[in-house]
Request: fold
Amino acid sequence: MTRSFSKAPSKEIRAQVGVQIESDFSSRLVGYLRENGYKIQAGDTTIKLAAEFGFCYGVDRAIEYAFAARHRFPNRRIWLTGEIIHNPGVNERLREMKIDFLPNTDDKNVRYADLAKDDVILIPAFGADSEEMTFFLNEGYEIVDTTCGSVLNVWKRVRKYANEGFTALVHGKYDHEETIATVSQVCAESPDGHYLVVLDLDEARDLAAMIVSGDWSDFDRKFPAHARSKDFDPARDLMRIGVANQTTMLESESREIGEIVRAAIAERYGAGETESHFLSFDTICSATEDRQRAVKELLSDGVDRMIVIGGYNSSNTGHLLELSSAVIPAYHIVDAGCLITADRIIAKPNGREPVEMTDWLPEGPQVIGVTGGASTPDSIVGLVIERILQLRGVPLPSLD
Ligand code: SF4
Reply:
């Protein structure tokens, strides 16, 4: 596909929108914490902030491009193909700026019904489905593409697999925008290209057992149509496998899945043949790795409970919760509004819908860890910390 997109915003526009972005999403308290060892003490409450949290380089860029697009095209309608990032507050801010969202439906007649030739298409940081991109390009829309460079790296990898006759085995969530866009690259690259999406270690172990035994009778039940390419024949399409991953998965799990599949291939074809049947490339992005590492450091540094802030549909935030809740009580919240009282909290347990919980903030000395996913603005993190201190009945220390 020939890519023809709107150019990057000029230095002048970036400077102008930078002021607006700073005012919308920064926090004086978080700035203070960054400059003072990521720790604040008030009475018997200690707040420890992860050394890496919040907006990543890809999100910074996506937001800058979105604000710049509004600035550059003040009188044109701008459409996002989906959430720009997984944070409800940020998406709401874009709506306030009159950036609209294409209807979320597979029915193209409905999805494109209100598009006019002069409209601007804004592609989120996750990227967009290859077929849809081709449509926008062919129709000549102005396209502002905020697809993160780390996502483009995954695309490059799976296209390479398709070209070399390897099926892309993607560790990811089949219904996540990034994975939808990634697997679309496989079929766009080669008519014979195939992919299979594997969610977790259990699925990888099931798959490995089938590879070793050559018994595919349970394959369709374990890996339904939405997780694989069309006309997928496991006996044919799993002879040569290239592993990649959604950029925001749990790093340790991705590595283990690669090892499980590699071992199965070695057992099936012989260790000497592994290289001609198996390729692997770690495509977890560095921002995800940094945030996961920082949470592990915080956990080993001694915290009593963890508050993890981010959109409920944010994959990388969910994994920060997963790491934390394996060790201490941990709560995934969207914003300060979830901290109802010192006893009541609305939080999302792993793999479940958000619920109201109790006893989340006990009395007595407490060390509370705080982190935020890659799509969480400092402004929200700052308000959460202020709310925790308020519920603990201690004043915010002077920031001067
Ligand atoms: S989490 Fe990683 S892949 Fe996603 S936008 Fe941020 S840097 Fe890019």
